[in-house]
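Please check both lines for our workbook:

___
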Amino acid sequence: MSGITIRQALTLGLHVRNRDRELPNLSKEIRYRVWWAITTTERTLGVMTGRSTSFLHSDCSVPLPLPLEEQSVLANNDSYDTPAVQQLRSPRTEESWSRDVTTSTPSSVSSKAGPTLPLSSRSSTGRAAPIAPNNGMFFLYSSKLNVMVDEILRGLYRPAIMSHSWAEVQGIILGFQRKAEGWRSGLPVVFDFTKSQRDQEFIRQRICLGCLYYSTLIIIHRPCVCKLDEKIPNETDVGKAIDRKSAATCVDAARSMVDLLPNKPDPVELYRISPWWCMVHHLMQAVTILFLEMSYRTTHCPDSTDAIFASAEKAVGWLQSMSTQDMAANRAWRLSSEMFIKVAPKIGRRINERLKWPGQFDEDLSMQSLLHAPTTTGNSGSFPMMPDGQAFPSWEPPIFTSYDDYLRRNDAFATDLQWPQPPDQ
């Protein structure tokens, strides 16, 4: 459905700037916002499913949406024809407030008040008056970050990246990291999700931007959360330091995403103040990184073992509380509980009983029952009885991705577990 919508929008020409002088400015802005709404949905689905989007941003010339409240604008059709709003669409002013922050660094972004009104709307002090925070401004910043996510996916995860050296990949990762920091540094104070604020009016916008930002950091730094010392044996000390810092940043982003949520799970409140349409995805994104780091025995963050385990418990607890009313959350809880049971012993921890999916048991307990199971004698001799009617004990690797193709089986479980062998015939 999303792909069909994109193709229909391309057919209507919504992806290009509308220069029809006879078309009202309000109609143009509505078209711009419709385009950004459907492309944001398409990119979100692409990240969630791991599939590429059906369009290229480089093929589009549509400007970013104006940081204005939709309700107030639609209530007064003439408001878009005022000189102040028209100057927002002038080339000079539009460049100043809609400048793509992906070209900025944190040091070059100093204003925390958000976009400003043009010259004709300046205050009595002679300075440009900032636009009051609103949903339109939130839509602008989320659209910018979605464009960045699309650039990251095409820059880091396309097949052609395999022809680059690891040093070049590191440079790409650091470049995207600076762009993400530039985006966050340019947020208005009321949208700053890194600070505790009493303001409740824009709490939903803050959590949405926070989830999207930390999700972006995870996507950027995920390639470094693996055993690169074995993949690149002759890597320089500088390269190893970059790898460790990048992996730690990815883990910290996962923890920060979980920290956006209250400690006590409350699904009803969560759906009110968060992006309910993709919250399960964000939680599983964070949980996967936390479990992956635990499966490596917190190699990249040795001083944060307790914090990583606590964040994982909190995330799984949220999935469990959401599972009663959400089928996707129910399946996510089952999968995360199963993985949690496997990776917790890697750091000397045990999953809380209340977080387990019904019928699941700890990895060490399952092995003890396997090793000391009663035997039956048949024509072939004596064999251990497998639980749940399994013919053979199954071997399941840790969370495995294409970036970990060098991980040997004995690095994960074979050194810890001794499988029972059937007696000689």
Remarks:
- The first helix runs from residue 2 to 12.
- The CA atoms of residues 298 and 305 lie 6 Å apart.
- The beta strands are 375-378, 381-384.
